[in-house]
Amino acid sequence: GGLDALSAAAEAGVDEVVIEQRKPAKTLLPADEAERLAEPLVLFEGSVAEVVGRFPKTTNVAAAVALAGIGFERTRARVVADPALQANAAILHVRGAAGTLTLRLENIPSANPRTSAIVASSVLATIRRLRAPLVVPG
User: How confident is the model at residue 81 (pLDDT cuts 50, 70, 90)?
Assistant: First the structure.
């Protein structure tokens, strides 16, 4: 998927990687603030190295993007509380020598609203790939 494309782009040379994580406001803000929020609010904009320290429970996607691409310092991150969202959204933008890549994923939150329901399926798929005699990159 997106991480494979990012890794390939990084081999060719990448000028810019931005990962924007948009989440329902109630998962990032105190309940009273989330209820008053009328439009999306940027809570953080900076390097992935900084964002994982500020939002350690909600930025695993940003960390994975940094590892697959150009590192924690050069990869830019944005965290947005969005009162209109019901799902977690990750928007990846990559620009480099091979061209541009823009990918948007929207995942339904799990019982733990800081993560997505698809995480358990992702772990299972990874385990199956590790045991498979033939692997098609995902």
Answer: very high
